Amino acid sequence: MGINTKSPLPIDRHLPEIESALASASSLILQATPGSGKTTRVPPYLLEKGYCPEGGQILVLVPRRLAAKMAALRVAEERGEAVGATVGYQFRFENQSGPKTRLKFLTEGMLLRYLVQDPLLRRVSLVVLDEFHERHLHSDVALGYLRRLQTRERPDLKLLVMSATLEAEGLSSFLGGAPVLRFEAPAYPVAIEYQPSEATKPLERKIKDAVASVLAKGGAKAPGYGENRELVARGFSPASPGDILVFLPGMGEILRSAEALRQALGGEARILPLHGELPKEEQAKVFAPADRRKIILATNVAETSLTIEGVTTVIDTGLHRQASYSWWSGIPALKTKAISRASGTQRAGRAGRTAPGTCLRLYSKSDWDSRLAFETPEIRRSDLAQTLLEIKAMGVERLSEFSWLENPPEGGLQAAAELLFLLGTTEGKGLDAALTPLGRRLAELPLHPRLGRFLLAAEAKGVLAPAFDLAAAIAEQDLDAGELHLFRPSSKISEGARRSAKQFAAFFPKAERARGGEDELAYALLCGFPDRVAKLRPKGRGEAPELVFCAGGSGAIPTEFVLGSSEYFLVLDVQERQGHGQSRGRVHVRSLVSIEPEWLFDWQGSLLQESQELVWEAKSGKVQEVQRLSYGQLLIEESRKPAAGSPEASLVFWREGLGLDLEDSSLIWNVPNLLEKLRPKLDVEALESLFSRLAWMKKAYGEVELPDWEGEGLKEGLKRLFSHWRMEEGLSVEALENAAWDAFGTHLQGKLQRLLPTGFALPSGRRARVHYPWGREPWLESRMQDFFGLKQAPQLAEGRVPLVVHLLAPNGRAVQVTRDLAGFWRNTYPSVRLELKRRYPKHAWPEDPLRGKT
């Protein structure tokens, strides 16, 4: 059956050229003006020209469900047959195709499901990627995989990439030099107007005011509308005014705006919603002729692929729901964002498809000028875990060698690979790790791996029934804030979540009746979200409760949460808030469930780790051996004990205890410099004394085998000294001396104590400490009266090392510093005695200090 051409479209006259170009190339890029008819005319033309052998299929990938459905309906209508026969469509929740379907329109994600089931696409002869400029993640993956098939197992597979706007050169190169065809269809002029309003005004009020503004301008019909013969042929009345297309971000905004317009306009216009969830009977009203002006409230499904005839005015909010993912849960989500200039241009163009028109933008010209030129490709802003799992399930063993049109962020790839390993789907953390049997089972489920893992664990625990509702609530971001009890009636979840729950249930047809309780459901959740464990932080008096996350960071808990005696939790949802004047936001926990710490040991997840570490404890001056059991960054258990001597412990001692890097070439190895570096770490006076005594010993007795305390000699001497240091004794003077005796021979101990003692008994009976400063003579000090009766200064090392004495007045100040005590008594003492006696009359100042006589 041929194509019914009673309504000619601009692309029709180019169809033979397109077919000829594709016949001589494995891939073709077609760039044609919006509204030219490429979606509904090119695929059926190629079907008729033999690009689909008997029993085969042509697949047309369309970004949105509604666009796929309407395109299939239009093609089937033009062929004079019902949809689901030769021409069909398929997307989530809906499948209108059968065994005889040869031309199938489907959403991009559905192709990946096809490829998981049949990686070679054995029945498919041609794949058409429509509206490729939107650069969805699924379309990027599909293109990369299909190109891989072409260069390997399926050189006969044809690819046709279509869009209104493309960076065709790079795409052509990726497809092996594919030819590019460009067709421009004449477009009607569109006038652009800007109507900004207060940011606080509700969106539905902005829409009501904008529509009122358009209607107030009057005009029974749009310019050129009645002269459009094509519209007249399709049943549109020349007397009808031009219709209004309003772009809104989502279904909620559509419903609120529709209600506001009905109250304001009554029956003056027909208010028609247009979104992906709309029943097909309601969708048909949007495209059918009407007895009065239509005001169509649409999401961005009407931005491309669909042509709504009769529209001459576009009202653009400048917003859309953009596919992203929750930074916390990692589950895909839709977030309201400002559109790019490219999308705004596409929307405006909808007003000039069938006649001259007007686009009213509900934001300022400066806002428009500051927007991004194009949308950020989804591959740069999406969680890649499900994508990597699907690619592996298609048979791509080495993901590191997969060809991308645009490489994803390296961090995003690695994070996705690590999550797959954590969930037990791969045998390692790398991109090239093989799938486990569990991974292959998960790849069969069209779910994010987290939710799939949760449902499989719930199946094993006998709690699938409530798990369906909970998984759907998580997927639809429909969790109640503060949700603690996971068994809740299905009536509490939204209609979208309820539909998702039914779809999830379809993948488990043999699910048993629930036999477990909340503990089993919480355990199953842990299997899907093992990196979302948190521990209650001990709080002080007056402090708010707070959770520490195993992935790092912390979150505040609302005071109304009843935590009971639980210490460990699984956090399902958080919210980041940034108060006025704060440089960064703070995380607030919104939804959580308590778990038992024992489950962390049962769970196979790689976040549970045992570690042993040698650490320097400054307070005790010892190296400690610390054994820890951790879950991610959460410390579960810790034990400490003094470290036994080992090369590893010595390294910790040198680096942390002494602050010395033995390999530091910039360090000047001499004792003064060394002592200065060690001063913050230990009692350098004790170490200085030890070095000095050993140096004096070597100087006085050359036969003693001791290192030179300079340069390499100092470094080697230190190594030798501290290799005998007992870590459990700390850095006390005694510990250092004991290490020295072991390092340089225990025979030194007696010699040093006898020949270079650390103390000296004076005639008064007081024992004075002997100081050994580096590079200077040893000295001691005490009150002058303590030296009465001592004829000459003490000698060290059998007279080979002089000892300097400091004679102190009663006020502690030195009267004389000398090594010639006899000369002092004889020559200087008589003159200073009179002054000291006058200043300190209560002290004894004998005329003969050697006998102590007054």
Describe the structure.
This protein is of the alpha/beta class. 35% of the residues lie in helices and 20% in strands. The protein has 28 helices and 31 strands. It has an eight-stranded mixed sheet with strand order 4-3-5-2-6-7-1-8, with helices on both faces. Strands 9-16-13-10-12-11 form a six-stranded parallel sheet, sandwiched between helices. α16 packs antiparallel against α19 and α17 (464-475) packs across α18 (495-506).
Oligomeric composition of the shown chains: single chain
In terms of structural class, how would the helical and strand content be classed? alpha/beta
| Cα-to-Cα separation, first versus last residue | 142 Å
Mean pLDDT comes to 84
Estimate percent helicity.
Answer: 25-40%
Based on CA inertia axes, which overall geometry fits? elongated
Write the layout of secondary structure elements.
Layout: H1 15-23, E1 27-32, H2 38-48, E2 57-62, H3 65-79, E3 87-91, E4 94-96, E5 103-107, H4 108-117, E6 124-129, H5 137-151, E7 158-163, H6 168-174, E8 180-183, E9 190-194, H7 203-216, H8 229-233, E10 243-247, H9 251-265, E11 270-274, H10 280-287, E12 294-298, E13 311-316, E14 319-325, E15 332-338, H11 341-349, E16 357-361, H12 365-369, H13 385-393, H14 410-422, H15 437-443, H16 449-461, H17 464-475, H18 495-506, H19 518-528, E17 533-536, E18 546-549, E19 554-556, E20 568-577, E21 586-595, H20 599-602, E22 608-617, E23 622-631, E24 634-642, H21 647-657, H22 671-678, H23 684-700, H24 711-722, H25 733-744, H26 747-755, E25 759-761, E26 767-769, E27 779-783, H27 784-787, E28 795-796, E29 801-802, E30 804-808, E31 814-818, H28 821-839
Parallel strand pairs: 1-7, 1-8, 2-5, 2-6, 3-5, 6-7, 9-16, 10-12, 10-13, 11-12, 13-16, 27-30
Antiparallel strand pairs: 3-4, 14-15, 17-18, 17-20, 18-19, 20-21, 22-23, 23-24, 25-26, 28-29, 30-31
